[in-house]
Design brief:
6 strands; alpha/beta; six-stranded mixed β-sheet; about 40% helix; about 230 residues
Length: about 230
Amino acid sequence: YTQAAFPTTRSAKHLTHYTLGLLSDLKRKSVEPIALASGVAVRTLQEFLSHMPWDHAAVQRLLVRQVAQHHAAPLSVGVIDEAGHAKQGTKTPGVQRQYCGETGKIDNCVVGVHLLYAAPGKHPNDSAIDNPFTCTVASDLYLPKSWADDLERRHAARIPDELVFRTKWRIALDLLKDSVGQGLRFNYVTFDEEYGKVPEFWQELNALGQWAVGEVPRNFHAWATPP
């Protein structure tokens, strides 16, 4: 992925070190313990995260294309979900008091919206399903209005001016559209009522020709034919 997103091979290796650190069994997943465990200078890894430019969208597109090429399956499922991670302080982009899945309560946290791809390992006509495949193919940060409307705070956190407020369901649709545009196909997508409660979300899925099975609240109204 170096040519797709990184100016140098060196900076691409820093992403490898950081990612492996996040996936490791380290008790603390901050920069310093990850750098020390990887044999990288702490300051160097800090500079990679804060100053070295790289195109994360290009890496994400490359991942989607690889999944589409090597793991396509007729019974593939797209899972739309969000994850909240507790954070201290007020400087992390997107942080505010909101529902945090990590702690199971309203907490100071950041929230990401994710699209997962899941598929059986064999053709559905086979009696046995072997080697199922699951992968997070796309993610994006939820930027609350408290952040989107605060120019001073945005600039301090280096949030690009073109990044505007989007609801979580809109972010999910953008992730889905981008993935389909890169060649990935989902037999159907599924989600909880945070997304299913929004009529516009269902309408746009229908406009895409995308089948879906999702939760809706008990007071959700629908018609067999348009009223």
